């Protein structure tokens, strides 16, 4: 997926529309599928939102990007490695020669087996004021199972959870509070406004954590239901999904038998 975000001085309505569209696109990619988002996000991330950044603080666009990363369990791959500063920036203003880190490669946390990610030191190959940002990664893919129609007790997906009106309202309210607190901090620059911004961020993160917890509880209830109905195979399937086990017990027995043989 490739994207281009409005700049940091664009109307807030335009920026919010961009992130709403991006969230919708992400929701349409199944959680077990590999997802990579390449884009000029026109956003600066600071060390409070990513491990190794070029900038020392997060700007308005960066707040929206950081919220997206948290909400969808994404990582900005080119901020995961301790590179020297000359390897971190991705854009150089032709008028002022100012350098910035605006371009990012986003991947899901479960696919974080990235070997390297960095900016190339030349513009010649693309003829742009942006550098090429590339990532090297190793994938371990499984053969997909035959497609099955969704049953009445199908597991609740993150897409379905986030599509519920109450969940959407809670997430939207938390993001709005962060945006309002950020504007207040930019106007006032006081310790109180900084504290309010930090509190808004924590509330946003807590909201996402509660949503994840609700999803987990729905899975637990499903295990109890199918187990009570003696649908043990389905019960174990849900348990394996919750625990992250990638192979069934039968697969483990077969592997052990092959080793003994």
TrEMBL record:
<protein>
    <recommendedName>
        <fullName>Endonuclease/exonuclease/phosphatase domain-containing protein</fullName>
    </recommendedName>
</protein>
<feature type="domain" description="Endonuclease/exonuclease/phosphatase">
    <location>
        <begin position="3"/>
        <end position="133"/>
    </location>
</feature>
<feature type="region of interest" description="Disordered">
    <location>
        <begin position="143"/>
        <end position="177"/>
    </location>
</feature>
<dbReference type="InterPro" id="IPR005135">
    <property type="entry name" value="Endo/exonuclease/phosphatase"/>
</dbReference>
<feature type="region of interest" description="Disordered">
    <location>
        <begin position="241"/>
        <end position="261"/>
    </location>
</feature>
<dbReference type="InterPro" id="IPR036691">
    <property type="entry name" value="Endo/exonu/phosph_ase_sf"/>
</dbReference>
<dbReference type="Pfam" id="PF14529">
    <property type="entry name" value="Exo_endo_phos_2"/>
</dbReference>
<dbReference type="GO" id="GO:0003824">
    <property type="term" value="F:catalytic activity"/>
</dbReference>
